[in-house]
Amino acid sequence: MYAIVNTGGKQYKVNAEDVIYVEKLNVNDNDNISLDVVAISGKNGLVLGDPLVKDAKVTGKVLKHGKAKKITVFTYLSLIHISEPTRLLSISYAVFCLKKKKKKK
Q: pTM value?
């Protein structure tokens, strides 16, 4: 027997005594909560709700709140999508030293 519950904009398939990680809830640790059931499977087969199964709730206990491991996100921008890539231009220049002409005596 399993149920599909809806919490945090996501759906989770749960069995009895399962531990699931969900989005943060506005309850304290060790509080009991009840979640809405979208579908339930049992002796009578699969029962689907429209959108929820009538008179069906899944109750659970919040074990703890925490944060997941921090992830690093790298973004890649292909050069083909840049309209005009920046180029390094090397400008050559010359330095001239102007000398006075010597007068002939």
A: 0.61
CA 29 to chain centre: 25
10-32, pLDDT tens digit by residue? 899 988 888 888 888 888 888 88
Residue type, 10: K
Query: What is the residue type of 101?
Result: K
Reported as a single tens digit per residue, the pLDDT across 46-82 is 888 888 888 888 888 888 888 877 778 777 666 665 5
Q: CA–CA distance from 23 to each of 76, 83, 89 (Å)?
A: 28, 40, 51
Sequence-ordered strand ranges (E) for the chain? 2-7, 10-14, 32-42, 45-48, 57-61
